[in-house]
Amino acid sequence: MRSTPDWQRLDAAHYLHPFTDHKQLADTGARIITHAEGVYIYTSEGQKILDGMAGLWCVALGYGRRELADAAYEQMLSLPYYNNFFQCATPPAIELAGLLAEVTPRQFQHVFFTGSGSEANDTLIRAVRRYWQLLDQPERTVIIARWNGYHGSTIGAASLGGMKPMHE
What we know:
This protein has helices spanning 4-14, 22-28, 54-57, 66-78, 91-103, 117-134, 155-161, 164-167; strands at 33-37, 40-43, 48-50. The protein is mainly alpha-helical. The radius of gyration is 21 Å and the shape is globular.
């Protein structure tokens, strides 16, 4: 098993962290998260930390959920992934889309899955632009967004918020 300094040296040598001053990180070393349970994460130094951000808003149901791990395991054995391009669909995606249509208001009957909020915002930018093209108004390209608001880290999403560090 590696020690915290071992992990930190390997991290500094090879791993690029988002929104990070890597010189400063090399001086201080990364916090090494080794495991998690429920709403807590644990460092390589044994520190227990309440994860109020739920990972990066993607572990809202908590860590270490056996029923989720079992369901993921079964799905990984059957069909871990297939894209929805080229007019293809998979039963899990179809079922989830149907369930979401059932539990949301009637005007929300179609679902587009993405891997992150950044991708979702980029997709919406493209959808809105396509909408105006279909109405023969392609000059309508302005997107209104909250200034200094975080809309994601992809080029499209980051361009919406006016957060200076996102443009540097």
